[in-house]
Structure formats: structure tokens, C-alpha cells
Amino acid sequence: MAAPDFFDEMRKADRTVRPAYAGVSDWLEKIPVKEMDRKRREAELLFRRLGITFAVYTEGGDTERLIPFDIVPRVLSADEWAYLERGLIQRVNALNAFLHDVYHDQEIIKAGRMPERLVLQNSQFRKEMVGIDLPRQIYNQIAGVDVVRTGESDFFVLEDNMRVPSGVSYMLEDREVMMRLFPDLFARNRVAPVSHYPETLLTTLRSMAPEAVREDPTVVLLTPGFFNSAYFEHAFLAEQMGIELVEGQDLLVRDGHVYMKTAGGLRRVDVIYRRIDDDFLDPTVFNPNSVLGVPGLFDCYAQGRVTLCNAVGTGIADDKAVYMYVPEMVRFYMGEEPILNNVPTYWLSNDDDLKYVLEHLEELVVKEVHGAGGYGMLVGPKASKSEVAAYRERVLKDPGAFIAQPTLALSTCPTFVADGIAPRHVDLRPFVLSGEQVQVVPGGLTRVAMAEGSLVVNSSQGGGTKDTWVLRA
Predict the structure, then answer these.
(1) How much is the average pLDDT of 262-281?
(2) Which Pfam families match (predicted)?
């Protein structure tokens, strides 16, 4: 069982059920455990038929794993969601303003509100982007913001995923499977839909087309290929949007424009939803050994003849040290106080922070600044003495490559496990789309730490997913 100091999203301290969970609680009381287990196995079969797997590279080779799916939904009230939505839109607007600023006038640096070295010496800062104007001044069209909860109204942003955020296909398929398995449950609850996401995404991408072709732009999704861990999502989204899924070899640059090779000849491309990193986009500008990108693509992009979503250079907003300054970005660019706050964070490049963290490694979570997917991190309270000692040596070799945060008391949700219904820790990745307008899909991807007591929700580390319900007012 979860410790008493973990916020239980379904039950209050007196064990009464919170209003948002009334329908789910009633359902859980009535459905037999054997029926729950049968439905869980049915869900697993559905996911296998759909081919929804995740490549786990640390297990030797491209090991394909089925992401565990929990059939007990996570529920947010209309008021809770409205609060989150306001905070997410505010944050993503500030991050887009920051990205435009650092590649243009760099006013936040000149004003002394952010260290120059953190930006200009950052490996994710793309000097090639300086001075390039983008449609609507938007750099990040698709954001996945990781949010954790520690109390009734205590929501914190854990990470901003601004480059090529993944996971939205699991959000959509989790909902589809739940609706197949439990149609009566949906009939008794006013759950906001998520099925319109692909249409909203396509509208967002089309709104980013170069001005000259904005009326009827051609949009494609650029994937690294079948062996990428998120290939299922790439293929799924392309199919759902009704656009072509392409690899670098399917595109070419001719006469200053990008074209797609088709059976009927070349077709001009106006917007590329790219799911490959900056380094591999164009071998003539970035990594010369890349075979995933398109030679000459960046020059077309810089000339405004094609739009890349998300923009080149957004990786600096993913940086976990830059993350520390997002609340300041909100104040600087928006003239507002942040609605959603950060988790307290130490950057080990600062001597005082380094001293404190080294003295408290056993109590903290330490992460690589450019890390992702739960790899390369230390969860101090769960680590052995030898693991802490080894990580200390890593930190001392390059302190600026690490940040540290307190071990958060993540909220718990009821989850179906081997012993029945039990609390498990969760986070939430809502997806924010920025185009002609900024929109947030009502819900997002809830990730759940399936192991008892675990705080690591990443699918690459054994975490699972849940359907996320936002109740309509």
C-alpha cells in the first residue's frame, strides 16, 4: 500500500471517494476480480493485434516489449482540467517566445534573467537558426509536458518535451481499447473525447505552411524508419491524419523546394512533421554521416520554402537546466506569474548546488541534463550504497551535465495488479498543439509505475499506461 503521505487521487484522507471518481469507484465495487482479469487479458490481446510495442535497447538488440496497460482509468474533474489547461497553454506560449528570442534578439539574456552560457554554450543551441523567421513565430507545434501531482491542487511540471515528444498514439489507443471493453462504463460517465486529436494535429500542421501555399499545403510525416522505437506511432499518426509516411530517401530537394517521390512523379512538400532529431535532418549541415535526412533540406527551410515541425533548435527548451528558468520565462515574456510551477531543481554547475547534492545524494533524484526515457538517472532512496558511490564519481567528472531534484511524493491512482486493486504512482503527459491557436487534448498519456513503491513511470523502465478521463462539466 502507498504511504499515507502520498496523495490518493480517488479517496480522501477519511477514505470517502472524491466526486470525480464516484462512477469508477461504484464500477470497481461491482465488477468481480475474475472479470477484471479477463478484461485485462483481452486488452493485452488487442494491443498485440494492433502491434503496439516499444523497443527497449538496453536489453541487448531491439527487444520489443508490450507496454503494460492498466484497465482502471485515471479521472480528472472538469475544474482540475481547466486549471491544468490554463497552465499548460501559458507555459508553452512562454517557451515559444523564449525560442524565438534566443534565435533573434536574446532579450532575456541581455536583461540578465538567464545566464548567457546556459544558452549560447548549450549543445542544443543551433547557431544555424539565428535570424531565421518562422511562420507565426512558432517553434514548437507539438509539446508533451510531463506533469506530476502531489496534493489536491498541487500540480508541478517535471519536464518539457519540445523536440519530438512521443506517446500520443498510446493515449488514443488506450481510449479505443477501453471503449471496446467497457462501453457501459462510458455511457454512465461524461468523458471528454480524445479521438479528434489527429484532425486537430493536421489542422495545426497545415496552419504552419509557408504563406504562399497555406490554402492547400501538402503535409508528410518524416520517420527514421521501421527500426525506430516509436515507429508504430509514426505510422499510426500518418494513417490517422491521411498523410504520407516518408523516410529521408523518399524526399529530395530540387530548384529550392522539397519534393516527395510518388508513383505519379514528384510532388512538392510544404510541411514536414519530423520525428527525427536535428543532427540527422540534413547531412550537408549537421551530421555528415546521416542517411536518415535529406541533403539540402535545411537551406529550403531557412528560405521559408518548407516548414519543419517541430522547428530545428527546439532542443534547447528540452534541456533540464534551461527548465529551471521556465517560470522566469513566463514572467519575462507573458508578464504573469506561472500557473504551473517547476519541481525544485539543483543545477550541479553551480558550486553551492553541487555541494548540497553531493551531501544528500541518497535523498535525491539525479538526472543527466540531456537524458531522456528514465535512462542514466539515480533515484537516491532506492539506490544501493555502491550505486550512489558510482554515480558520485560520474557527477564529479562533469557536474554541469547533471541536475538534481527532491524525491517527489507522486500521487497514486487505483490500479489492477496481481493482488487486485492497489495504489500505484502516476504522472501525466498532456499534449499541447500550437498553430493558428493553442489547444490541449482533454487528458493525455497517464504513465503508471506498475511495481509497488516504484516512482519510475517510464515505459522503457517497466512502467505502464492508463486511459485518462477528463469529466465534462
Answers:
(1) 96
(2) CP_ATPgrasp_2
pLDDT at 59: 43
Q: Is the pTM of this model over 0.70?
A: yes
pLDDT at residue 107 above 70?
yes
**Does the pLDDT value for residue 169 go beyond 60?**
yes
Over the chain, what HEC string results? CCCCCCCECCECCCCCECHHHHHHHHHHHHCCHHHHHHHHHHHHHHHHHHCCCEEEHHHCCCEEECCCEEEEEEEECHHHHHHHHHHHHHHHHHHHHHHHHHCCCCHHHHCCCCCHHHHHCCCCCCHHHCCCCCHHHCCCCEEEEEEEECCCCCEEEEEEECCCCCCHHHHHHHHHHHHHHCHHHHHCCCECCCCCHHHHHHHHHHCCCCHHHCCCCCEEEECCCCCCCCHHHHHHHHHHHCCEEECHHHEEEECCEEEEEECCEEEECCEEEECCCHHHCCCCCCCCCCCCCCCCHHHHHHCCCCEEECCCCHHHHCCCCHHHHHHHHHHHHHCCCCCCEECCCEECCCHHHHHHHHHCHHHEEEEECCCCCCCCCEEHHHCCHHHHHHHHHHHHHCHHHEEEEECCCCCEEEEEECCEEEEEEEEEECEEEECCCEEECCCCEEEECCCCCCCCCCHHHCCEEEEEEEECC
> For 323, what's the count of Cα atoms within 13 Å in the CB-facing half-sphere?
31
C-alpha to C-alpha distance for 293 and 288, rounded to whole angstroms = 10
- 116 with 210, same domain: the answer is yes
User: Domain limits at 403?
Assistant: 344-407
Task: Give the pLDDT confidence of 27-67 residue by residue, as tens digits.
Answer: 999 999 999 999 999 999 998 887 765 554 444 444 556 78
Which of the listed residues 407, 435, 462 is the one where a domain comes to its end? 407
Overall number of domains in the chain: 2
398 & 416 share domain: no
Cα–Cα distance between 137 and 141 in angstroms, integer?
11
pLDDT single digits (tens) 397-439: 999 899 999 988 899 999 999 889 999 999 999 999 999 999 9
Instruction: Please provide the average confidence, as pLDDT, over all residues in the chain.
Output: 92
268 has pLDDT over 90: yes
Q: Note whether 364 and 463 are same-domain residues.
A: no
